[in-house]
Design a protein that fits this description.
Largest sheet: 5 strands, mixed
Radius of gyration: 24 Å
CATH superfamily of the largest domain: Nucleoside phosphorylase domain
Strand content: 15-25%
Structural class: alpha/beta
Order of helices and strands: EEHEEEHEHHEHEHEEEEHEEEHEHEHEHH
CATH topology of the largest domain: Rossmann fold
Number of helices: 12
CATH class of the largest domain: Alpha Beta
Strand order of the largest sheet: 2-6-4-5-7
């Protein structure tokens, strides 16, 4: 056992670093160390609330995975993950190993297979903030600093934004304090931060999120999604096990009523679950690129297998009709929220696997194919802008850029979602529905599109669902395209 050597600090006893060649045993040790740390911090914090400031600083550490290899591995070049690029020392801090158990077992197993050396599991040197430990206990709340009789930071570690960053995914050459290169795209503190934000913005727990995520910018889609979910729950052969609504209300019976919450969260979220996490999550992100970035920034830590935007857009071509579909194969980025993380000169490629799944889903749902499909769907550039009322400004500049880019649709979220998918290595795609044509006098005014909403919303959502169900059947090595990986990548997805 490791016992804290610093008399001024009280820390839990945890097992020493140990080598493992069995992924399940490795993850079990991660869970042991993590639970010990969480329990220790929670108990000491509860005592501090009643008894006052502890006599010593209370500190616990995240568990970590370490790998050291001295040779270049003969890896399967078709795989974009599961191996490190060159000899060296690699590590990652871990949080919520219960939530990520399947993911961790899979990734550790690939490492063992690729390199033939054990992984080492133990406590890291990264402190666990008391806020994130308390987040595991729904009955425990960390009070604001200043509301207690002592300064919280004098006794416990608190979230540190200087260590909560995206340096790994942004390719900024991040290394751990001992020089180890990262094994995974996110540090434990970064993940914990996003898990807390997710619970706040979506009003559902991270445990409910599925591997396939649909984003929309209209609440209209929610009713259709719930209706589909109830149909699936009524079918014993569907493979779906439950439906979770905002507020963590979970039903397994298709006839169980769901009471709408008195107040919707900022991003209402709904989950149609399968036993293996292969279900579908629908997130209404609202309007705007900032919301799109916020949602994807946090959902990315869950390492979903795909996310798609199924929202409404402005059609830019006179030949388009309200209700037509737009399949994005390129993006004009005028959203600006990712300029510091992913410069606009970085191309965002279309992913063949996603494009094919979406196009086939449109054909299946509309019963059109080939040349006839062109009557209702265009493939082309989608422009994403950060000014909802761009039409009210002098139009020469924006319209010229839209023309030069060959844009066929304009919205406020799609390019942001795609660009963050590219940045976080999450497969992405976009299928939009034309709700107005501002360049051609068909503005989104009350009553103009009511029939369109009634007839097209269900079809549009069903297309997104069908595409996700197709992607679910696709092997991971196919869906996780090498297009999203650079020459210096983490071993973990």
């Amino acid at each position: 056992m490791n016992v804290a050597k610093n008399a001024a600090v009280r820390s839990p006893d945890v097992p020493k670093h140990e080598s493992f060649t069995d992924p399940k045993l490795a993850v079990a040790r991660l869970q042991e160390i993590y639970q010990t740390a969480v329990k220790f911090l929670s108990e000491n914090f509860i005592n501090a609330l009643s008894e006052g400031q502890p006599d010593r600083r209370v500190r616990a550490f995240y568990p970590e995975i370490r790998l050291t290899t001295t040779t270049y591995a003969k890896t399967d070049s078709r795989l974009s993950f599961g191996h490190v690029a060159e000899p060296g020392m690699y590590a990652t801090t871990v949080t919520r190993p219960d939530l990520f158990a399947s993911y961790l077992e899979q990734q550790i197993g690939l490492l063992l297979q690729s390199h033939g050396v054990p992984v080492v599991i133990g406590a890291s040197t990264t402190e666990m903030p008391v806020h994130f430990a308390a987040a595991n206990d729904p009955g425990l709340t960390v009070p604001h600093d200043g509301s207690m009789e002592f300064n919280l930071r004098d006794a416990f570690d608190v979230p540190d934004l200087s260590t909560t960053h995206d340096a790994i995914v942004n390719g900024q050459g991040f290394t751990y304090a001992d020089g180890a290169s990262p094994l995974a795209p996110f540090t434990a503190q970064r993940i914990d931060y996003s898990l807390a934000r997710l619970a706040h913005y979506t009003a559902t727990a991270a445990e409910h999120f599925q591997n396939h995520v649909l984003f929309t910018n209209y609440q209209f889609y929610v009713e259709e999604f719930e209706g589909y979910a109830r149909q699936m729950l009524a079918d014993p052969d569907s493979g779906y096990t439950s439906f979770v609504s905002t507020g963590n209300i979970e039903i397994t019976d298709p006839d169980t009523p769901i009471v709408a919450p008195a107040k919707l969260p900022q991003m209402p979220t709904y989950h149609l679950k399968r036993a293996n996490g292969g279900g579908i999550t629908l997130v209404n992100i609202g309007v705007g690129p900032s919301n799109a970035k916020t949602a994807t920034d946090h959902i990315a830590v869950l390492r979903p297998h795909a996310w798609l935007m199924v929202g409404h857009c402005a059609g830019l071509r006179n030949s388009q009709r309200l209700g037509d579909f737009v399949l994005a194969h390129a993006y004009l980025r005028e959203d600006h929220v990712l300029d510091d993380d992913l410069p606009v000169w970085v191309p965002i490629p279309a992913l063949a696997e996603i494009q094919i799944a979406l196009e086939k889903a449109v054909a299946d749902v509309t019963a059109l194919e080939g040349f006839e499909l062109k009557r209702i769907m265009r493939t082309g550039t989608v422009a994403t802008i950060d000014n909802r009322n761009w039409e009210l400004r002098e139009q020469a500049g924006p319209v010229q850029r839209l023309s030069q880019s060959r844009a066929i649709a304009l919205d406020m979220e799609s390019a942001t979602i795609a660009a963050n998918g590219f940045r976080f290595r999450v497969p992405y795609g976009t299928l939009l529905c034309v709700s107005d044509k501002p360049l051609h006098g068909e503005l989104k005014l009350p009553g103009m599109a009511s029939d369109f909403y009634k007839t097209q919303v269900a079809a549009h959502l069903m297309i997104g669902i069908r595409a996700m169900e197709a992607l679910r059947e696709m092997p991971l090595e196919r869906i996780h395209s090498r297009k999203l990986r650079s020459f210096e990548e983490t071993a973990f997805l």
